[in-house]
Specification:
14 helices, two-stranded antiparallel ribbon, acyltransferase activity, transferring groups other than amino-acyl groups (chains A, B), Peroxisomal Thiolase, Chain A, domain 1, nine-stranded mixed β-sheet, 2 domains, EC 2.3.1.- (chains A, B), alpha/beta, homodimer, 11 strands, Thiolase (chains A, B), acyltransferase (chains A, B)
Chain lengths: ~400, ~400
């Protein structure tokens, strides 16, 4: 049966960083306002909205409701969704399905997180609970840098990647972050600075790690019929894959990859008619989930951009800069742009949309040859994975 | 464009009550297992699952992930959704849209809540934060019984309803709860007991109030094509309406109704071709959100079962018992069955499905004349509202 096509027709993005100058709903509204303006719509046109927010550190128990009221979206239908650090992509999915299913013609997805509402050690504790609280956090004290350090150690031991290869990811992220006015860290770093940065969990250092971030991002989606009337530059959601991993990392068989991300990519590629081994040839730009540098290297392999065990070579050879084999995270990535966990997935969609429409910040714009982009958003350590494919060409469906 | 029909093909429901005998994932699995068995499917057949859980009192930060692993649903795609006390209906919606949109052919929605994980005063505090935390909870100390007491006072003052009319609701709920083996309270109460029960927030008493509950409920949904192969007794989701209300109750203009519920009903009725003023004629059974007795009376009016200001007469005349104008909450409702807030919306869908298929517990089965049922699930005090219509007849769409 023929399904409805869904397009992004407006995008909004706040400055990422320490955003205690506003409250949660004000932060969300900054992104929503921009997205509505870009779509040339106002609140009454929105038929449904969804709020992505983890918010364990938030005083507000019902983020979707306070955001709805403050943004004047009440009484439109809504819900809050959560998929750990992939929460933004879960929100995108909900709005996408609302339109694809015919329940709405215009919907808004906003991701928002204000992680600085909580003092720093508590945030790390709360993030540490993501996974299997009872077995791994309560009993063994694992927190997220520890989890990803397991991945990095396993990967380096098996494939011979070096600390400098991880450093290359951080340097690239900061190179582009320095050119993105929305980024939390707008300064470049050197390999020397990287190697000397404080150890967090061996082999990961401070400069391998994405920061604690406040921020919001929003997209307005529309059905094909409506999109055609509103804009001459829609960006279509071609397909989405979604998969999950075990809560316990002890039940995973391989620490050199994120199996859920691989499965989500397979789904998304299969629906879009993309061959996994040549996937990189299809895309002008990719946004991947580099919560730690090692995660970006695993993403190269889980998305088929590099063969197993060769992802670090893409970094070493600088093939994921603009002009390389496939530009990745040229908005600064989670590492330098920042990682407000409820917003990150939508931020990826915003960056890709603006890239495909030649609206990226100066010094970060890729050449658009294929009109296609891809986002890879992981929750936890592969507890959730969402892979989404975007295109300026209308899907035939 | 023709959309896909979606059917419920399996239902599961745990005993509601104090369920500290199990953990969150074990509780969810009780319902999931039953739903899979009823659908004659196993985990590998499920293509997507969604977990409804509020869980502010939960140690587990990622309920969908621990439920997925324990229930052997990993690596299927998933997310957690939240819409306060309407969370179960939000989960139903997500699974419904996954199938209606063509993203999946078989999906599972489970709602689970373990409110006794937290000591009682803290649960009331956490529920109190649902609404506008900053203005109404932090500054004025309003908690949920207080909010609904405002509704009850306004309603009684405007329309002349009496305490005994509220009592009629509680007595009916306990009458049917006593006959539902899954109910938290399986005993009848008298008007005298009702009138003498402890005051909570005038005019509401302990016996006006739904309890703190642990429990889970699950449904398996399938596309028409798949449902036809699996079962000869599908129950179709005909339509769903969804709306929201302001976070601040101070911004509401009328306390004698829940505007969001009325709007959600309008949407659901409009899509199903049902005339609001005669809505009660269409349904064999209704499940409404009686978190406090006054809420059930407002629901009668917001759903069009009674004219404005006359809902309490339905209670007084016992028209919502089996054999009356329209049987409502004949499973005991939130009041007697219990209200595990993430599960309640799915529990309603389970009760309606079993009623329409003549599988309700003895002494609670309605006569099925139209083959249709309706659920009304409110989050907060009208912060969210979901109205869903079910039928044994396949929608023509």
């Amino acid at each position: 049966m023929k399904m409805r096509n869904v397009a992004i027709i407006g995008t909004g993005h706040t400055k990422f960083g320490v955003r205690t100058d506003v409250n949660l709903q004000e932060l969300a509204w900054e992104a929503i306002k921009q997205a509505l303006e870009e779509a040339n719509l106002d609140q009454k046109d929105i038929q449904y909205f969804v709020v992505g927010n983890v918010g364990s550190w938030s005083a507000e128990e019902l983020p979707a409701v306070v955001v709805g009221e403050y943004s004047d979206l009440t009484p439109k239908g809504t819900m809050r969704v959560e998929a750990a650090c992939a929460t933004g992509s879960a929100a995108l999915r909900d709005a996408y399905l609302a339109i694809k299913s015919g329940e709405a013609d215009i919907a808004l997805a906003v991701g928002v997180e204000q992680m600085h509402q909580s003092p720093n050690p508590q945030v790390v504790e709360l993030i540490g609970r993501a996974g299997d609280y009872f077995w791994e956090f309560e009993n063994f004290g694992l927190t997220f840098p520890g989890y990803y350090a397991l991945h990095a150690s396993a990967y380096m031991a098996k494939y011979g990647a070096k600390e400098e290869d991880l450093g290359k990811i951080a340097i690239k992220s900061h190179h582009y972050g320095a050119r993105n006015p929305y980024a939390q860290f707008q300064k470049e770093i050197t390999m020397d600075e990287y190697l000397k940065s404080k150890p967090v969990a061996y082999p990961l250092k401070l400069l391998d790690s994405s920061p604690i971030t406040d921020g919001a991002a929003a997209v307005v989606l529309a059905s094909e019929e409506v999109a055609k009337k509103i804009t001459d530059s829609p960006v279509w959601i071609v397909s989405q894959g979604v998969a999950s991993g075990t809560a316990n990392l002890s039940k995973r068989t391989d620490f050199t990859r994120i199996e859920a991300a691989y499965l989500a990519a397979q789904q998304a590629y299969s629906r879009a008619g993309i061959n996994f081994d040549e996937a990189w040839r299809f895309f002008d730009v990719a946004e991947v989930h580099d919560c730690f540098t090692i995660a970006e290297i695993m993403a190269y392999e889980d998305l088929g951009f590099a063969k197993r065990g060769e992802g670090y070579l893409l970094a070493r050879e600088e093939q994921t800069y603009i002009g390389g084999k496939i530009p990745v995270n040229v908005d600064g990535g989670l590492k330098a742009k920042g990682h407000p966990i409820g917003a990150t997935g939508i931020s990826m969609a915003v960056s890709i949309t603006r890239q495909l429409l030649y609206r990226a910040p100066k010094g970060t714009q890729v050449d658009v040859k294929h009109g296609m982009g891809i986002s890879h958003n992981v929750g936890g350590t592969g507890h959730y994975a969402y892979v989404t494919i975007f295109s300026t060409r209308r899907p035939s469906s």
